[in-house]
């Protein structure tokens, strides 16, 4: 059996750049069927036409603001100063659409997407409507901005969230997977897009682990930096490690087959016991970043 490794699953910043996109991961380039992600960098006053094709798509801010015009509508994404400043508002753009994305002051914008069947209405979601959750405890504390999870926003196939991990902490932990269709697990392709807070002397770094099981072999231990991507077609993934001194951000984009849009995971049974150690531990006081969090969750 073949094993997918770091060489084709860890895309360093610039590896997946195309004309007009700082990053473009499509189902075709990823070697799968559903999940995609683009990052647009717009100079002040610049605009870009974007065709969604068969994929429902969000337009959200990594930094800066923009307008999104199409489908007889025009919305403003107020955005944010950066990914650690709290959730972004966003615009949902249906499949088979063409929109113009324009930024008066310039900025960086993420376009997570999923190939889907239904064509829903274009619409705007304010940042205030994004549920912010604090998960774990102690050194496993992290923040999750659930902006496009099944309970938070209506979409046909796309599931997306942001995870923010203070320096020195571990997230996506215990390691978990979602690569089988069972009553307790969904089959989902996943993209991890990373940003890392800089330190006083320069750029930061983090680490991402992915490993296989049975006949689904995969082996990645990647040093990730600003703008890197790790593709996860299957296998256990985690931990995501924020090294001391550098806060870590990642955007998760997920989609898969089946009629149900669900996000069900199972822990690696070798490490699931770690959850029990969180009882009585406080959530890291450095959280939340830029927003008020809810109670501890379970990922």
Description:
By secondary structure, the chain is mostly beta strands. Helix content is 3%, strand content 49%. It has 2 helices and 26 strands. Strands 3, 4, 5, 6, 7, 8, 9, 10 and 11 form a 9-stranded antiparallel beta sheet that branches. The chain has an 8-stranded mixed beta sheet with strand order 2-22-19-24-14-13-12-26. Residues 292-299 have low confidence and may be disordered.
Keywords:
3% helix; mainly beta; 299 residues; disordered C terminus; globular
Architecture blueprint of SSEs:
Blueprint: E1 4-5, H1 6-9, E2 10-11, E3 23-25, H2 27-30, E4 35-42, E5 46-51, E6 55-70, E7 73-80, E8 90-93, E9 98-103, E10 107-115, E11 123-125, E12 132-135, E13 142-148, E14 159-165, E15 170-171, E16 176-177, E17 179-182, E18 185-187, E19 189-196, E20 206-213, E21 216-224, E22 229-232, E23 236-242, E24 248-255, E25 266-267, E26 294-297
Parallel strand pairs: 1-21, 12-26
Antiparallel strand pairs: 2-22, 3-4, 4-10, 5-9, 6-7, 6-8, 6-9, 6-10, 8-11, 12-13, 13-14, 14-24, 15-23, 16-25, 17-18, 19-22, 19-24, 20-21, 20-23
Mean pLDDT: 95
Radius of gyration, in Å, reads 18 Å
Which percent bin holds the helix content?
Answer: under 10%
Global morphology: globular
List low-confidence stretches. Answer: 292-299
Percent of residues in β-strands: over 45%
Q: Give the distance, in angstroms, between the N- and C-terminal Cα atoms.
A: 30 Å
Question: From the structure provided, what is the oligomeric state, counting identical versus distinct chains?
Answer: single chain
The class by helix and strand makeup works out as mainly beta
Number of strands: 26
Element order, helices and strands?
A: EHEEHEEEEEEEEEEEEEEEEEEEEEEE
Number of helices: 2
Could you give a short account of the major beta sheet?
9 strands, antiparallel
